[in-house]
Amino acid sequence: MSSVELDERLVRDSYPVAELPLSQLRLMDDTRFPWLILIPRRKGVSEVFDLAAADRHQLWHEASEVSRMLKELSQADKINVASLGNVVAQLHVHLVARRRGDDAWPGPVWGHGQAQPYDLDELASMRDHLLARLDGLQLEL
């Protein structure tokens, strides 16, 4: 796998959780929404169609498996999956657990209010819960 330098905004706004077969999995630093990001470890990729076919399949497989796990963990009503790239061009896929009545419901989470950062205990707890659940997933195609 290629080593890829992450955009500084992704590093600043999120925490590493795990290395999946294709992607780095990161947790957005906002306790209002259980929010994960998948960042494929491929250089110079800004669009899903820039990936080789096998990598596209792997990315959506990872997104599906991690989304299912996140929905169960957070008891969300809906998982929003998006790859915008308007601010950060490096390809990354957002997986956001949404609940009816959350701070941004029913609108998008982007640009809504101020992020509420994790404190160290919350971060450790969330990361531990995610890692425990990731263990049971079939992430390799």
TrEMBL record:
GO molecular function annotations of the record: catalytic activity
Domain HIT residue range list: 36-105
SUPFAM superfamilies, sorted: HIT-like (SSF54197)
One Pfam family it belongs to: HIT
Protein name: HIT family protein
Species whose genome carries this gene: Billgrantia kenyensis
